[in-house]
Design goal:
The structure is a single chain. By secondary structure, the protein is mainly alpha-helical. The protein contains ten helices and four strands. β3 and β4 form a beta hairpin. α2 packs antiparallel against α3 and α2 packs antiparallel against α5. It has a single domain, classed as Rhomboid-like fold, CATH 1.20.1540.
Length: 248
Amino acid sequence: MHFRFHGLLRVLRSFLIFSPGSCWIACVCLVVYAMQHILETIPFIYGFSMADAFYPCFSINRHLWDGMFWQPVTYIFLHGPWWHLTFNLLTLLLFGTGVERLVGTRRFWILFLLGGILGGIGWLAVAHLTFVLPSIQSWTYWIPESVRHTLNLGLAPVSPDSAICIGASGSLFALLGAFAALYPHRTVYLLLFFVIPLRLRARTLAIVIGVLSILEIMFVQSQIAYASHLIGGIAGYLLAKRWRECYE
């Protein structure tokens, strides 16, 4: 009984004590999020707030091609609604801590930043590509109207001139891809829709998420940057696979 109690304490301790890299990133995201809300209250010009000038500069958008080379890094630390920030920080602290303990803090930072940078640039490229391709409506007419409405298939694609991307999702998917490359047969537990418990191998989970991301890029029109998820995950997987081959 005494042994089981101490075992339980070790498990709880592993969940409550987070790695240094994850904590630093979480703190930066929280500070930036507070700054975003402060800027929304400061008038700028002609009815616009300081936030209206802040987002085009530090999110990732078409102005990257005009010389705003910092955007692929700064957009990672910006977030939208509170639930967007909360979900990303929980994933970072719980899952990212485990990855950092496996690969070390230096490589954790490389994975996080590289996945976010490539995911953001990839999202921008896909946004331009989908805008010039035939519309989704032209090749999804066979889908029932109710399903089309649920998936927003009737909406016109957002112009890349006005689209922006913010958030650390591309970086988090890079961590997931790296974990799948380093420990493909490791069992991963998760809650589907936060209710249904699932147990999958890490590589199986990465494949499922990759396929879903491709389908979402092709069919689902929303504000979620699915292309950033996919490209960030692939970048993390390939980089970690390279690391693994160097050790073998």
